């Protein structure tokens, strides 16, 4: 249950795999190495009780292999709960490729990765994530059928990010309803951190509704581009977390809610796309509760993407994906109620409901 990574220097002190802090009874961890293409990847299969482990492949320039391992352990576990809470018949898995996607990625490397995915015979199904693209999925498709997020031209559902953004928007509206008594976002000051694939579409929804959107990103060119396109304000201060906003939407990378940032947060609602937003889900979830900040659990409200790619497995239908994604609004409200009724954090509430679904299926299977 512990998700906070140790400092790299401390990681070697514990058992290499099953002793990692992020290890949570994962069913299988596959290390992939190919000398010819330079591929170094790890596939994490956390749980397959509800179905095959579906989750994206992240390509990232990790500082060391421990960091990559802990990331795949954390992310794959997150997928188990994401699919369970969303009502999908999927387990949780994820893969990481070690390297800089802009420099190190080659078609040969991606094709080889596809062969590794294929070797698992469908126990793990991949999709895109940070550092991988729809084109990569098309290439993987040539090597295995166990891939989603394939382009529309190749019979897939294309880039899942717009659907993810719609789910985040729905979750944000539900959290606003809970906290402010209305889900109308017009006039609300909303900080979107990270205006990549998901962040941009979210900014589109928010500005269309009349929210006062403030954007932040490490990519200056993109900031100017998105700022101009949607009339969003660019954040210029040096303390993003203490920005005077109503809603904070983390849409870049995880763990932005941590010991350094949490007490500075002024927003009353947190709802964003990034995975694993809480550096430590127990400690930081509890502090948010104590601070009276309504936190919409990341793995619930960013599930639009998985809903969309899942539909590839059962016959792709965009309208059906959007309808299911819209339901994130209702599920988010249910989670706020469940958390209040049981005096637990929203993160714990979402985990508990998801775990109950898994336990129930396990019991049914044992009959
Ligand atoms: P992306 O790579 O397209 O965009 C990420 C953006 O964040 C980039 O513009 C990048 O420059 C910016 N960024 C990176 N570090 C930053 C920092 N420190 N401060 C501000 N900006 C920073 O990724 P995406 O597909 O938009 O996904 C965003 C997040 O949502 C990721 O955490 C991803 O795992 C998660 N997510 C995405 C999907 C999806 O469908 N794409 C689904 C579920 C979860």
Structural descriptors:
about 375 residues, alpha/beta, Rossmann fold, 2 domains, six-stranded mixed sheet, six-stranded parallel sheet, about 45% helix, binds nicotinamide-adenine-dinucleotide
What this model shows, in words?
This protein is an alpha/beta fold. The chain has two domains: 22-74 and 91-159, Rossmann fold; 162-303 and 331-353, 3-Layer(aba) Sandwich (Rossmann fold). The protein is 44% helix and 14% strand. The strands form two sheets. Strands 1, 2, 3, 4, 5 and 6 form a six-stranded mixed beta sheet that branches. Strands 9-8-7-10-11-12 form a six-stranded parallel beta sheet, sandwiched between helices. The mean pLDDT is 94. The structure holds nicotinamide-adenine-dinucleotide (NAD). Nicotinamide-adenine-dinucleotide binds at residues 129-130, 160-161, 164, 193-199, 216-219, 222, 251-254, 273-275, 302, 305. Nicotinamide-adenine-dinucleotide is lined by residues 129-130, 160-161, 164, 193-199, 216-219, 222, 251-254, 273-275, 302, 305.
Question: Order of helices and strands, N to C?
Answer: HEEEEHEHEHHEHEHEEEHEHHHHH
CATH architecture of the largest domain: 3-Layer(aba) Sandwich
Query: What is the strand tally?
Result: 12
Mean pLDDT level: 94
Please name the fourth-level CATH homologous superfamily of the largest domain: NAD(P)-binding Rossmann-like Domain
* Sequence stretches where pLDDT stays below 50 over 5 or more residues: none
Radius of gyration: 19 Å
Please report the distance between the alpha carbons of the first and last residues.
28 Å
The CATH class of the largest domain turns out to be: Alpha Beta
The tally of domains stands at: 2
Query: What level of helicity do the residues show?
Result: 40-55%
Would you give the CATH topology of the largest domain? Rossmann fold
Alpha-beta content class? alpha/beta
User: Which hetero ligands occur in this complex?
Assistant: nicotinamide-adenine-dinucleotide
Strand content: 5-15%
Q: Number of helical runs?
A: 13
Q: Quick one: overall form?
A: globular
The major sheet is characterized as: 6 strands, mixed
């Amino acid at each position: 249950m512990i998700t906070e990574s140790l400092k790299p220097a401390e990681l070697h002190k514990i058992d290499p795999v099953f002793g990692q802090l992020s290890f949570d009874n994962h069913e299988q961890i596959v290390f992939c190495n190919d000398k010819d293409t330079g591929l170094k990847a790890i596939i994490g299969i956390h749980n397959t009780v509800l179905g095959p482990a579906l989750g994206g492949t992240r390509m990232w320039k990790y500082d060391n292999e421990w960091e990559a391992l802990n990331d795949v352990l954390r992310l794959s576990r997150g997928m188990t709960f994401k699919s369970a809470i969303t009502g999908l018949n999927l387990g949780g898995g994820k893969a990481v490729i070690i390297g800089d996607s802009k420099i190190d990625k080659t078609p040969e490397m991606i094709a080889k990765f596809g062969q590794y995915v294929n070797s698992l015979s469908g126990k793990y199904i991949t999709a895109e994530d940070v550092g991988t693209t729809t084109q990569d999925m098309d290439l993987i498709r040539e090597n295995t059928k166990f891939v989603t997020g394939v382009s529309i031209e190749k019979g897939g559902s294309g880039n899942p990010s717009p659907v993810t953004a719609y789910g985040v928007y729905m979750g944000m509206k539900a959290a606003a309803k809970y906290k402010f008594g209305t889900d109308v976002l017009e006039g609300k000051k909303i900080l979107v951190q990270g205006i990549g694939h998901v962040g941009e579409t979210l900014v589109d929804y928010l500005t269309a509704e009349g929210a006062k959107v403030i954007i932040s990103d490490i990519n200056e060119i993109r900031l100017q581009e998105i700022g101009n396109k949607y009339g969003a304000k660019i954040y210029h201060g040096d303390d993003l977390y203490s920005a005077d906003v109503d809603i904070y939407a983390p849409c870049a990378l995880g763990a932005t809610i941590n010991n350094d940032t949490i007490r500075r947060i002024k927003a009353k609602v947190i709802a964003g796309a990034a995975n694993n937003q809480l550096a430590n889900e127990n400690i930081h979830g509890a502090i948010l509760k104590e601070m009276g900040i309504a936190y919409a659990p990341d793995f619930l409200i960013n599930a639009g993407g998985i809903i969309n790619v899942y539909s590839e497995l059962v016959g792709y239908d965009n309208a059906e994906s959007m309808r299911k994604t819209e339901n994130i609004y209702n599920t988010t409200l249910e989670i706020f109620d469940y958390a209040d009724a049981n005096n637990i954090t929203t993160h714990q509430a979402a985990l508990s409901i998801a775990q109950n679904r898994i336990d129930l299926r396990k019991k049914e299977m044992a009959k």
